[in-house]
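Section 5.1 Outputs to date
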Amino acid sequence: MLKFELFHPRNHRFADFTALAHRLNPSAPSEQIDPSIKCLLTKRYGHVVARVSLQDAEGLHGVPQRAGLIGHFEAVDKDAGVATLEEAQRRFKDQGINHVIAPMNDNMWGTYRLSLPHQEGEVIYHPPYFFREPQNPESYPSYFLQAGFNVSDTYQSRIVEDLFLRSHQAVLMNDIAEKAGVTITSLDVDCYDQQLQMIFELCLRAFANNLYYKAIDFETFKSLIAPLKPILDVELVLLAWSPDGELNAFVFAYPDMLSVVGDTPSRLVLKTVASLPHDKNIDLSLILINRIHQKAYEKGYSAVIHALMHDDPVSLGLSKEFCSTLFRRYALYQWTSA
């Protein structure tokens, strides 16, 4: 017999909400939950067996109607997981919300998507996950499908193992960019807060038309970066400047702390690349990715992972320019009431 309990994060039952995640996935990073988000806990004979968060998600770019978000999904088994998702659907429908996106923790800035099982013939790399990658049991995608969700968007991470290989196109564009007065620097640790503010403002402009985008403030942005600051290597954060000193593009990469061999990580995770519209003959994103590969090679890394890219020709085209191969697939789901 399943029992559902709905409460806000400040309720004493929130301890049970967080405990389930730590029990099922001890290595998962802890996340702050906005006090306005509702927590739904599922119990079976007094024991916590599943959880989700529920949020009214007005304002997400590309979602034309009022939508709901289901996030922070965890379940001990199929019956508990499917029942919890269906209960979340009922509660949204009772509020007049007939379109639900899942799993998504708050918005595209937070954790979202499910890792999908490898298909036959796909290479399984070792270690099989990278640091800060979404991790979930292989059974989770089937729970969403059984609860009536369908796949709305797909994503990939890809891996480049031949770091000595250079993109001919990137080399040509780099020469053009230099002649046009573009300069590329590493993050300046002495100006960390100032340059982080500039990166934040560039992100707001570069990502504004991305699906599921929602504006956040600078303090929230800093809190998202904070968990990576202890392993930050400023030489792996590259900034492209226009001749008049405007930040036009950046790339952010960090060591994959799950790939440590001895005391040294063997892989690098290219987490974010963003650029503002530029001369059509200069692709700053391609130039910066090429530079990151060069840096990784010089620092002794054996591979670079292009992390969590939307399955679209532009993103995948940039990655495939470097002969990348598939690392893992991911999916985001949606449910629409009949």
